[in-house]
Amino acid sequence: MISNFRIGFLALVVGCVNTGETDTDTTTTDTGTTDTTGGDTSDTGTVVLPDVSDAIDYRDDLAAHPGCSTAGLAYTAATIPGYTCAAKEYVGTEDTDKPVVVLIHGNSDTPSSWETYDSGGLCPKGANEGADMVTERLVADGYRVIAADMRFDLVDDPAGNNDTENTAKNMDHGWGVPIAQHLIGSVLEAYPDRQVSIIGFSFGVTVARDAVRRLAINDEVAVFERIDDMILLAGANHGVSTFFLCGVNPTMRGEVTCEMGDRAAYSPTPFLTPLNGPEGAFETPCSDGTSAFGRPDACNGHSVDYTTVVMEDLPGGEQQDLFVSEASSYLEGADNQTIGLNDFDESNYFFCGLFANHYGAARSIPALDIIDARLAD
Asked: I want to staple 286 with a disulfide (CB 3.0 to 4.6 A). Which of 39, 116, 299, 358 is the partner?
């Protein structure tokens, strides 16, 4: 059964990664000289913390959030104390010395994006069709894996067309981040003696990054001392190609593009400004073991390892990945890795491999090997 064929072709046009509008950096209270952590020092020596507050509206009332539901799932929902939304859990012979791995999928997608795939003969046989993917490989290595399900199928926008409505059922960050934030926070509480590693793909990259920002800043959770790795695959950290939808479509299909910026001519958006900070100062919180979002001593001496993975650009500077580029994926302070132009997804996932170049960052053998190696460090 091919679950990812249950939505129409138009759902794919912007379904994997989202974009955003151009804007200028938000300003912070500036009474002194900006230091390397992005914080300021006043004339009296008092540290003035930079403003990294929320810049968009979030559906934080999870009891009223249409996407926070376990109704109608094709799998048994994970049971995590205190967690009320949908997630899928994968576990075999577990090594409890290893971190719990949390997966955040892309737009118009489900936890199936992390799993082995068989088209059942509906597509020409792919070279890696039926091969182990992230969940199978990690479970075989002894990890407990928990994948968020942001329930794109329950998107409540009008769905009559894709020009002014949202037949594609695209989600924006106001929809996705509260679910991921709830899941990560619940996993931290459920496994207080374990570390956590987070892997995001496409839209799930900026969802994961914003979720941990909100846990740290809004909820005052000491999240970064509990994270070992953040592995961010084909993320639109500095814009995406489908920016043209911003301001054209008033639903989440258009709004999400106004959060991400233009891949071709990126300038900071209100959504990405608190995540990235001035000149990338906040892009990898606690990678130095000291500061997060300009907050000194936020890491309790613990360093978080960041890895990005994206398909390399073409020699002329164009992109074979339909949505992101090396520049849009890049994060200051991360180990920014590329896969080759032939390292596309050969498993036939997502409409017989329609976006195989983009999915290559999560489902090609070289990308899977990078994930395995980084988690094993």
From this structure: 299
291 vs 370: CA distance, rounded Å:
26
For the whole model, what pTM was predicted? 0.90
Burial 226-245 (b: 16+ CB within 10 A, else e): bbbbbbbbbbbbbbbbbbeb
Each residue's pLDDT tens digit, 260-295: 999 999 999 999 999 999 999 999 999 999 999 999
Q: Which residues of the chain fall below pLDDT 50?
A: 1-37
Token representation of residue 202: 């496409």
The pLDDT value recorded for residue 104 is 99
Distance CA 308, CA 115 (A): 20
Which domains are present in the chain?
3-376 (3.40.50.1820)
Length of the chain: 377
- Angle at 113 (CA atoms; ends 329, 169), nearest 5 degrees: 85
Q: What is the pLDDT of residues 171-184, one digit of tens each?
A: 999 999 999 999 99
Name the 3-class secondary structure at 186.
helix
Q: Print burial letters for 35-68: b (CB count within 10 Å at least 16), e (below 16).
A: eebbbbeeeeeeebbbebebbbebbeebeebebb
CB 88 within 8 A of CB 149: yes
Contact 106, 170 (CB under 8 A): no
Residue 81 gets the label, from left (phi > 0), alpha (psi -120 to 50) or beta, of beta
- Residue 46: the pLDDT is 67
- What pLDDT shows up at residue 81? 97
